[in-house]
Amino acid sequence: MLSKMITGLTASLVLVGASGAESAGDASAASARALRAAAIAAVEAEDADALLAIMQEMQRRSMYFFEGDEVLCRREPPKVGLLAKPGFNFGTARTAYQTFNKVQRLEEQTCTCPQAARSFEEFSVEFLGVMPEDISETEMQKLREYNIANKNTVYAEYRDFRNQTCREAP
User: Fold this and answer.
1) Sorting pLDDT into bands at 50, 70 and 90, what band is 65?
2) Keywords, A to Z (predicted)?
3) Per the domain annotation, does 65 fall within a domain?
4) CA dihedral over 139, 145, 147, 149, signed as positive or negative
């Protein structure tokens, strides 16, 4: 069954390697699952031109075979200063950090996990102008306001983007 699926996908995407001008359009319309299957089929068929076009599209979408950056994808704010105290400060900071990074991924139209964009320390300096351990109630209020203004919209847009561009179809 897998070989039939790969053969079918190969037939539909082998045209990807047929011409450079058409290849980008054909590969860009393929789902993430179709691109992975077509890459495997192109390797098995030793079709370097098709594989190159497919891999270029995978690179454009930041889709890779290896998940070496999974540690970056699990980054969270450090529990220091106000972020270490009981209450909602840590969650507020984490939500703002994730939202800010998702905005960047939407702008770039890349499927790489949001937290790979920057560390929390980089976010804190860029967005708040202070290191995480120096976050005061003033900066926390800025994070709260950012979350209220952006979280729901960004999360919905990002979810739609991920579902349409990055997720594998069942």
Assistant:
1) low
2) Plasmid
3) no
4) negative
58 confidence band (pLDDT: 50, 70, 90): confident
Count of C-beta atoms within a 10 Å radius of residue 64: 13
**151 & 83 share domain:** yes
SS (H, E, C) 117-158: HCCHHHHHHHHHCCCHHHCCHHHHHHHHHHHHHHHHHHHHHH
Least Cα distance to 54 among 82, 29, 80 occurs for 29
Q: Is 76 left (phi over 0), alpha (psi -120 to 50) or beta?
A: beta
Counting the structural domains of the chain, the total is 2
From 39, 81, 34, 69, select the one nearest 56 (Cα to Cα). Answer: 39
State which of 40-49, 105-114, 150-159 shows the largest mean pLDDT: 150-159
Domain limits for position 89? 70-166
Element (H, E) at 109: none
Cα–Cα distance, 162 to 156 (Å, whole number):
10
Supply the pLDDT for residue 157. Answer: 96
pLDDT category at 14 given cuts 50, 70, 90 is very low
Q: What are 100's two structure tokens?
A: 């800010």
Percent of the chain at pLDDT exceeding 70: 77
